[in-house]
Amino acid sequence: xxxxxxxxxxxxxxxxxxxxxxxxxxxxxxxxxxxxxxxxxxxxxxxxxxxxxxxxxxxxxxxxxxxxxxxxxxxxxxxxxxxxxxxxxxxxxxxxxxxxxxxxxxxxxxxxxxxxxxxxxxxxxxxxxxxxxxxxxx
Length: 138
Known about the structure:
Elements: H1 5-20, H2 24-37, H3 42-54, H4 58-71, H5 76-88, H6 92-105, H7 110-117, H8 126-133
């Protein structure tokens, strides 16, 4: 890495400020440079993915957020944002799984509980419904 960690973190903070200020055209190239400089930086992938989503680059958004989850599988924030992105893309089954992962990591997570409350109840799989209807006295 050409830059030291402190310099990268300073650039990261600046990119987050651009993102939070709606300056996506400034944030995106900065986040792209950061993930290029440190491909293992989960937070930079997550922020790049979120920023891509804000400008409608949904496939790239999803790929970056998934990469953040791969790099930090215990990150509640990454799983939560992956679930929300999947919802926006209409991938509801996958989103439900991600919200459930958030709850597995943090059972008291209010937002994940709230989001799951909007989903219809899960239907039993074909095998479960056949077993449920089987006559035990048979």
